[in-house]
Structure formats: C-alpha cells, structure tokens
Amino acid sequence: MESVHPGNHNLDTLSHSQISKEEETFPSHQLYTFQAPWLVYGLAWCNRVNSPYSLALSSFIESCNNKIILVELNDKTEDFQQVVQVDHPYPASKVAFIPDYSGTRPQLLATSGDALRIWEWSNDNLKSKALLSTNPESEYCAPLTSFDWCEVNPATLCTSSVDTTCTIWDVETQQAKTQLIAHDKEVYDVAFQTGTDKIFASAGADASVRCFDLRNLETSTILYEIPDDSTPILRIGWNKKEPNYMAALVMDSSKFLLLDIRVPSLPVAEMEHKLTNHKRHKSVNAIHWAPHSSSHICSAGDDCYTLIWDISAIPRPIEEPILSYQSDREVNNLQWSAADPDWIAIAAGNKMQILRV
C-alpha cells in the first residue's frame, strides 16, 4: 500500500510533534504516477519556473538500446503524458537539465554514460546538440559515472569517470577546460559547491570524498575517508543553502553521512535510513537536499521508503523522519524540484512518481 505520514506542507515549520504514527493512504491529489515500459533510473526536473511539472526520465536496460523520454503533467487530465522519446546507447548514469530558472538560455539536457551528451529541448523535440568525449579520436572512452551542472555558471559542467578523472567542460564551446586525476580508483560522483564555480567535490571507489579548487589544482583536500575500509562512496550532494555542509552515500549501507567541510575527516552525523519501528536495514540508494531549506534532506532506498529528515537538531541524534512515503518497489533514485520545492520525484521500478510534501 502506498502511504505517507501527514504533515504541514511548509517544511521549515515542521516539527517532530506533527508526525502521525499511523500511516494513511496518500491523497490522490498529492501523488501522480507515470508508468514506463522499462525500469526507470535517471530522472530530472525541468528547472524553469514556467515548466514546473516537466521531467526527463532514462531507462535502465541491460543492452545498447536505452531510452530518454520527456513527460509533462496534464493539468486537465491529471495524468503524465509523454512528450518525446529518443534513443540512448547504454543506460544513462545521470540526466539533468541546465540550471536556467529564468529561461534565458536554450533548454539543454545533459546525459552521461559512454560519453557526455548534450540535448536541446525545443518545440516538443529533443535534438542531439553535442557528444563530448575526452578521447574523441577513439570510438571508446572510459564510462562516465555522473556529472554536475554549475548553477553559478550554467555553461560549465563537470563529469566523473571510472578512469579516476574529473573533467570540467565548457558546454558552449564544447571543449574540455580541465581534466585532473581526482582519486586513486574510480570516481563515482562529482558536485559543485553551492554558490561558486571554482570549488567542487568528488567521491569514489577509494572510500574518500575530496575537494578541489580550480584556482589551485596542485593540491586537494580529503574531506572524508572511511577509516580502514575500501567501501566506495557512491553519491555526494552539497546543501543548497549552507555551502559548508554536504551529504555522502556509502555503497550497500543503510546509512548516509552528513559532513562539515570545516571539520574534515569527522562526520557531523551518520543518518540511518529507516523508521524507528522497522528492524530491517536496507541500503539507501539516493539522497537529495531541499532546494529551499538548509535543514531538510530526503533519502530513499531498497526498503521502498522515501524519507524526509529535519536535521536542525544536530548534533543531537535524529531518530525519526518528519515525513515518509512507501512505494511498492525499491526506490532507485529521487530528485527534489528546484522550480517548485513542494514536489519530490522518485524512481521506483518502472514507475516515476511525484509526491507533494
């Protein structure tokens, strides 16, 4: 059964006293579902304020015949409709729209996988604009695991790769500006620090989170390293309102970490992705900070739950989320809408659902 703990829609005013211990059926007007013919993995909200209910989805099919589709919520029918579909070789490791909220730039969509692909969405068409590779002379290059648009300068994008490197791209000139060896092993994620185009962090198979300053690439800072362990760190994300804080997701773990870059090597907190009355510990697969609040973060995982946490009480332990939603399949991915922060999108099996929080 799909259910949610009721709560105030304004996350900044939520408190633990407002949590109902009894789960209720999620109201239909607060939940919309798109059924895909394949497993949904990548998902991205359109960042434009005038298109708040448009999303890009990518398939996870174990072949060279994958898909990228754009869907929009129809206000009249209250159903998602597919706008356009394009072929994508290999599953996309990530999809994301350019962070252009005012609509002054072309509406670009980036996807990573065997290469970095830039698409332009115009007049209900999704056209290939560029295919960027660090090895253009060869048909093959090291797979890209992730990327991040720079919000301060949307012409800049950074990719991470299994070949241990990160590459800074100029999307307008379609040229690589900088490439550096970031880790000792595969790099699994990369993210620009909130509010700057000079600093970014990366995470990888060497169990570390590292920070780089493009003004001085001779050195890097190890923000966190799992002690005496080789467990990869798969995902990272900067707090959207407090640039000193970030979150990190460890492979095959039911916990995710909160880090303060001013205090390297020591996590601010280890958050357990579960409800208090649940004894089974399942892996957390995705984390995403609220775009409008410094104290709220969302996690989702193999337990089929999507949980929203209020971390304002840290360093005191945070034992219970302020909001929870249970789907009927494991949740592989989630994204919090920047254009309308009342909504979160999740990928659960072959469903994409948007939830009003």
TrEMBL record:
**Coiled coil (residue ranges):** none
Pfam families given in the database record: WD40 (PF00400)
Q: State the UniProt keywords alphabetically.
A: Repeat, WD repeat
Q: Where are the WD repeats?
A: 180-222
Q: Cite the Gene3D superfamilies for this sequence.
A: YVTN repeat-like/Quinoprotein amine dehydrogenase (2.130.10.10)
Q: Which SMART domains match?
A: WD40
Record-linked InterPro entries: DCAF7-like (IPR045159), WD40/YVTN_repeat-like_dom_sf (IPR015943), WD40_repeat_dom_sf (IPR036322), WD40_rpt (IPR001680)
The record's annotation in PANTHER family points to: WD REPEAT CONTAINING PROTEIN
Q: What is this protein called?
A: WD repeat-containing protein 68
From what organism does this protein derive? Galdieria sulphuraria
